[in-house]
Amino acid sequence: MNTLWQNIQHKMLRSGSKLNLLIGINIIAYLLVNITDTLGRFFFNSAIISFYSNEYLLLSPNLQTLLTHFWTPVTYMFMHAGVFHILFNMLWLYWFGQIFEEYLGKQRTLGLYFMGGLAGAFLFVLCYNALPVFAGRDAALVGASASVMAIIIATATLLPDYTISLILIGPVKLKWIALFILFIDFLGIVGPNAGGEIAHMGGALIGFVYIKQLQKGNDWIAGIANIFKAKPKLKVVSKNSSGKSTGKPRQEEIDLILDKISQSGYDSLSKQEKEILFRASSNEG
To answer: How many structural domains are present in the chain?
Structure first.
């Protein structure tokens, strides 16, 4: 048991993968809330844990409630409504997140997860307060779906022709999977889970725009991170006598390679281009 916990800690905190960290936090949050709630209901016939988690951790579209529960646009994206809800969210996050980290390194996953979740929260609150069709509806936003959608759409935008094998279906390109998910979400925006589907669309939008901006050389996530980095006072210049570049590749080089991957696939890269992409990932990871 001790070894199992050590393995979990290593994957979450020391592997360098932000994907493992996000999945771990989601699972731990789900287990903490639901195990304590189940024990409370069974032994004390009390639903107090469920009440407080719904009241203080889920996102309400009510602006007055939002002012006093200002942390909920973040906490809601780590909560889930049931076993299948968290299971499918974490599976999609794992499948697409692995591809995302393989091509863009491990440092962007966390930032895009939060950006997607916040975009979903913003669109949810906006629609429920601005559109007459949602007037008077009582709703609460829960789940990592908007964050996961940001990563799914970002990965499909970056690598539209990347092919994966689906059970019972066979090889399918990422762009078709993404379009199918978006179509299902669009049909559901007037259904019983309208708030959730709207949030999905917000996450999807931020994922698409982020990659398009990244391909133009504008890395929003790196830009935000750089604000909080202390600038070095000294600049150290070293020469590499081997003739092989070991420094961080220029953003323009990376963008050109990403464009080539989007159009022709990873196998079309030359040895030098693969080496540049590897160095970029190593610098980020």
So the answer is: 2
Q: Which run of H or E residues covers position 172?
A: strand 170-173
Tokens representing 267?
A: 């196998």
C-alpha angle with apex 57: 51 to 58, nearest 5 degrees?
A: 90
Q: What is the pLDDT of residues 90-128, one digit of tens each?
A: 999 999 999 999 888 888 999 999 999 999 999 999 999
Instruction: Measure the CA–CA gap between 180 and 185, rounded to whole angstroms.
Output: 9
Domain range for 116 is 13-221
pTM: 0.77
Contact indicator for 152, 181 with CB cutoff of 8 Å: yes
Same structural domain, 129 and 208: yes
User: Which three-class secondary structure state does DSSP give residue 283?
Assistant: helix
Looking from the CA of 164 toward its CB, the CA atoms found within 13 Å total: 16
Regarding whether 60 and 169 lie in a shared domain, the answer is yes
Distance from C-alpha of 118 to C-alpha of 116, rounded to nearest angstrom: 6
Q: Which amino acid does the sequence have at 143?
A: G
- Does residue 72 fall inside a structural domain? yes
Instruction: Tell me the helix, strand and coil percentages in the chain, rounded to 5.
Output: 70, 5, 25
